[in-house]
């Protein structure tokens, strides 16, 4: 999308990228940090609808890992602003109409061996979720449809029902039955 934003895509043997829509790579606030998509052997990345990736975004899939991103369905746009890191060891599902701010970390693994702990646990982010800046969505997190994750929040291994305002470290429900929209009215 921008000829001045470097993009690197590396794919291991039999890795597959499927884009069912338009993928735009767009600098945020004139950022110039490169975008990286790194896919291990037999990994799968599916973007199912129009989606925007901003500068400095890094998406890393291990061997045999799967990442699904729903793309735009009902909102005016869906995407990741900038400087976000998504690291997939096994399986992460992100629903449609994502609004992801800058400096967010999403992962399904601890990335180190911890005695007595599962090495990874699926992450599920429902449709129409807004993740504010500097938040961490860690292994086992389940976020329902229509949620907002407040800035600087840390979600780790908990399930949050739909239409909740989630915040804090560790994260908890701050308010329920919320309704939000991407565009100012």
Secondary structure: number of strands: 22
Describe the biggest sheet? 8 strands, mixed
What is the global morphology? globular
Tally of helical segments: 0
Report, as a whole number of angstroms, the end-to-end distance. Answer: 27 Å
Mean pLDDT: 95
* H and E order: EEEEEEEEEEEEEEEEEEEEEE
What does this protein look like?
This protein is mainly beta. It has no helices and 22 strands. The strands form three sheets. Strands 3-6-9-12-15-18-21-22 form an eight-stranded mixed beta sheet, with no helix packed on it. A seven-stranded parallel beta sheet has the order 1-4-7-10-13-16-19, with no helix packed on it. The chain has a seven-stranded parallel beta sheet with strand order 2-5-8-11-14-17-20, with no helix packed on it. It is globular and about 45 Å long. It starts with 6 loop residues before the first strand and ends in a 9-residue tail after the last strand. The relative contact order is 0.12.
Task: Kindly list the characteristics that best describe this protein.
185 residues; mainly beta; eight-stranded mixed β-sheet; seven-stranded parallel β-sheet
Can you lay out the helices and strands and say which pair or pack?
Elements: E1 7-11, E2 16-19, E3 23-26, E4 35-39, E5 44-47, E6 51-54, E7 58-61, E8 66-69, E9 79-80, E10 85-88, E11 91-94, E12 99-100, E13 105-107, E14 123-125, E15 130-131, E16 136-138, E17 142-143, E18 148-149, E19 154-156, E20 159-160, E21 164-167, E22 172-176
Parallel strand pairs: 1-4, 2-5, 3-6, 4-7, 5-8, 6-9, 7-10, 8-11, 9-12, 10-13, 11-14, 12-15, 13-16, 14-17, 15-18, 16-19, 17-20, 18-21
Antiparallel strand pairs: 21-22
